[in-house]
């Protein structure tokens, strides 16, 4: 069985670094990016099952990443992680097709639970 | 007067019409008067004509002395008499006393003519008697019965004198006859046969004397008639003339009055009619200029009264609407301020949350990693994790410090008189190293003498540092930073320009750059408080901060500060 491929986009390198280590321990294949533009280029080359992205970034921001990824591959689940309180940009993100929205600081279990949920949905849709 | 407009208009039209009507009637009566007078002139001319005819007949009568000419004369006179009597009594009164005089003179004149005619009849007899007695005396003298001195030749001479006198009737012949007669007495004092002749001669003398008197009377009366008719004709003509002159004068007077009073009257009437409308119009104008408390005066009792009433009602409503609108506007304004306050507070809170959540998240993620991998962590990794936690804590602390600084500017700051040029120079010194590292070319054009500003040295320095650091970030690699200061002597302000050749600010960001936490920089590089704090500080110094930017070309920040008194 293929490993679930996860992409992490956050302009602060420390976020990607920590998450990569935590998620790889659970058997996920994780790639990290600190620039939205570079991440999107990588999306063209490879398929990612799940994209975890920060919202507020210089240049290509999280909202743009969400839009582009959903436009290219509607199967990919996009999870937003941001310092903004939920209500402000979560509505916009959900309208644009975000799978879930997580406010920083979050517990790693919460993120893992959301990833699990996304995985099961992915399995359901590919199984049918 | 409480008159309606249409009453005023009727009055305004009828008064001039009445004047015109009166003028017309007067002129008409003048003209008919003149016509009547002209009739009198005709009558007077006719009378004059008749009198001249009478005088011509009078002359003929006096020359011929016979019945035929006497008849003509009489006819002419009675003709005049008839004409005079035919004149109607009112006309007689109008023409006046001259005509009455004429009327009275005509019968007298006729009487003189009758008398004279009688004398002419007598004259024939008297002359016949003289001739007879003369012949008798001639025959008697021829007998020679009396003195030889009473000769035939003397008598013949006497008869010659007698013939001359009858023929010429002048003074010479009269004197000759008179002296000859008196000689008879000298020659023969008691000549009884001479008496008859003498008496006949004396009869002749008296008859002629009476006749002459009558002729005189007749002629003088005739003259009088002529004069009177002439006078009447002249005076009637004069009257007609004076009538014309008077009418002319009246017309001229009327015209002058019309020219002077006409426009005045028209103007008065017009203004009298439009006065209430004008008043209303003036009020309307004043109201339209903004004074809604004014009202149209209600003293007019004409059509404008209702107009003014409805106008005022309309104004009442307008004022009410205006006032309530003003109140609503105030309320709305207050609400807007409230909303703005909340919005900026919300922005601030959300900014703080975001800025703090990021380092907190990093700390918690690091801590969780350490907990999960407790056994597998190498000492190097542990060192790195601890360092990360410290760095992120420091970052959070800095954000709080920035925030406190931002809030602090709202509070009072110690202000003093200090040299702004010196502040700029110190700010440049603080960033000199960063400029050098970034390879930025610095150009300054600052005054040599100090310019004093009432302010806080440290805070103003922070403003310049913030702006210069932003410029360094915008330039990135190579570029130029230009700093200059200009004194505006008119307003006594100093203008400090800080220009860079960096990437510039997009149009849509310009309005946001002074907002707290607005930043385009990556996390950790900027919190977005720099310009917001700077603006607060500049405003605290009663100054202004402005920006002009073009994407790709660069940005210029201008700081305007008031100078404190004289340099
Ligand atoms: N000289 C400049 N050239 C181009 N952009 C600028 C310039 N100065 C400011 N900006 C823009 O305005 C934003 C706000 O500036 P500000 O100084 O308030 O915050 P910051 O520099 O991002 O963060 P901080 O100053 O708090 O570290 C910047 O992120 C940048 O996009
Ligand atoms: Mg800044």
Overview of the molecule:
The complex is a heterodimer of chains A (128) and B (567). Helix content of chain A is 49%, strand content 20%. With 128 residues, chain A is an alpha/beta fold. Chain A has one domain (5-122): Response regulator (Rossmann fold, 3-Layer(aba) Sandwich), CATH 3.40.50.2300. Chain A has a 5-stranded parallel beta sheet with strand order 2-1-3-4-5, sandwiched between helices. In chain A, α4 (86-95) links the parallel β4 (77-82) and β5 (100-103). The mean pLDDT of chain A is 90. Chain B has 3 domains: 31-146 and 191-237; 299-410, Helix Hairpins; 412-567, Heat Shock Protein 90. By secondary structure, chain B is of the alpha+beta class. The two termini of chain B are 74 Å apart. Helices cover 74% and strands 8% of the residues of chain B. Chain B has a 5-stranded mixed beta sheet with strand order 2-4-5-7-6. In chain B, strands 1-3 form a two-stranded antiparallel ribbon. Classes of the chains: A alpha/beta (128), B alpha+beta (567).
């Amino acid at each position: 069985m293929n490993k679930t491929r996860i992409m992490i986009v956050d302009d602060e390198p420390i976020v990607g670094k920590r998450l990569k280590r935590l998620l790889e321990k659970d058997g996920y294949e994780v790639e990290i990016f600190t620039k939205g533009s570079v991440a999107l280029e990588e999306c063209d080359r490879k398929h990612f099952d799940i994209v975890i992205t920060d919202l507020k970034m210089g240049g290509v921001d999280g909202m743009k990443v969400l839009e582009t990824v959903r436009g290219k591959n509607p199967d990919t689940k996009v999870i937003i992680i941001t310092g903004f309180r939920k209500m402000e940009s979560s509505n916009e993100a959900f309208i644009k097709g975000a799978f879930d929205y997580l406010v920083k600081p979050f517990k790693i279990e919460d993120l893992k639970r959301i990833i699990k949920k996304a995985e099961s949905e992915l399995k359901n849709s590919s199984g049918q | 007067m409480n008159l309606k407009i249409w009453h005023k208009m009727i009055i305004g039209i009828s008064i001039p019409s009445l004047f015109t009507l009166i003028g017309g009637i007067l002129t008409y009566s003048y003209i008919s008067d003149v016509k009547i007078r002209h009739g009198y002139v005709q009558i007077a001319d006719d009378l004059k004509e008749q009198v001249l005819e009478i005088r011509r007949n009078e002359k003929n009568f006096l020359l011929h002395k016979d019945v035929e000419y006497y008849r003509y004369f009489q006819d002419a006179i009675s003709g005049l008499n008839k004409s005079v009597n035919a004149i109607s009594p009112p006309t007689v009164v109008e023409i006046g006393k001259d005509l009455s005089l004429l009327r009275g003179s005509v019968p007298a004149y006729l009487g003189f003519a009758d008398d004279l005619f009688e004398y002419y009849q007598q004259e024939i007899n008297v002359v016949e008697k003289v001739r007879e007695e003369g012949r008798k005396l001639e025959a008697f003298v021829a007998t020679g019965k009396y003195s030889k001195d009473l000769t035939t030749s003397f008598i013949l001479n006497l008869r010659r004198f007698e013939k001359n006198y009858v023929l010429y009737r002048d003074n010479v012949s009269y004197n000759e006859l008179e002296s000859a007669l008196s000689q008879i007495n000298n020659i023969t004092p008691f000549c009884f046969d001479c008496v008859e002749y003498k008496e006949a001669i004396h009869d002749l003398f008296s008859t002629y004397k009476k006749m002459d008197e009558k002729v005189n009377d007749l002629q003088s009366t005739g003259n009088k008639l002529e004069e009177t008719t002439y006078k009447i004709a002249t005076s009637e003509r004069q009257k007609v003339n004076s009538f014309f002159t008077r009418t002319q004068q009246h017309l001229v007077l009327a015209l002058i009055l019309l020219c002077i009073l006409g426009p005045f009257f028209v103007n008065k009437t017009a203004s009298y009619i439009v006065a209430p409308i004008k008043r209303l119009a003036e009020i309307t104008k004043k109201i339209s200029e903004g004074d809604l408390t004014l009202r149209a005066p209600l003293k007019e009792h004409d059509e404008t009264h209702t107009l003014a009433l409805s106008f005022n009602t309309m104004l009442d409503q307008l004022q009410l609407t205006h006032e309530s609108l003003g109140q609503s506007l105030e309320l709305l304004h207050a609400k807007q301020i409230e909303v703005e306050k909340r919005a900026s507070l919300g922005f601030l809170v959300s900014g703080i949350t975001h800025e703090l959540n990021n380092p907190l998240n990093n700390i918690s993620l690091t801590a969780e990693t350490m907990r999960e991998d407790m056994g597998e962590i190498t000492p190097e990794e542990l060192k790195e994790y601890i360092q990360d936690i410290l760095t992120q804590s420091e970052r959070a602390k800095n954000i709080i410090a920035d925030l406190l600084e931002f809030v602090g500017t709202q509070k009072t700051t110690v202000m003093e008189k200090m040299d702004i040029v010196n502040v700029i120079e110190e700010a440049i010194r603080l960033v000199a190293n960063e400029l050098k590292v970034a390879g930025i070319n610095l150009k300054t054009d600052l005054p040599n003498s100090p310019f004093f500003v009432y302010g806080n040295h440290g805070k103003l320095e922070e403003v310049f540092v913030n702006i210069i650091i932003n410029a360094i970030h915008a330039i990135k690699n190579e570029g130029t930073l230009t700093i200059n200061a200009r004194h505006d002597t008119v307003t006594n302000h100093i203008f400090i320009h800080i220009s860079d050749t960096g990437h510039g600010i997009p149009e849509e960001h310009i309005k946001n750059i002074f907002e707290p936490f607005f930043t385009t920089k990556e996390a950790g590089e900027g919190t977005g408080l720099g310009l917001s704090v700077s603006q607060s500080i500049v405003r605290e110094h009663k100054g202004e901060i402005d920006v002009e930017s073009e994407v790709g070309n660069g940005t210029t920040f201008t700081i305007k500060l008031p100078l404190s008194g004289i340099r």
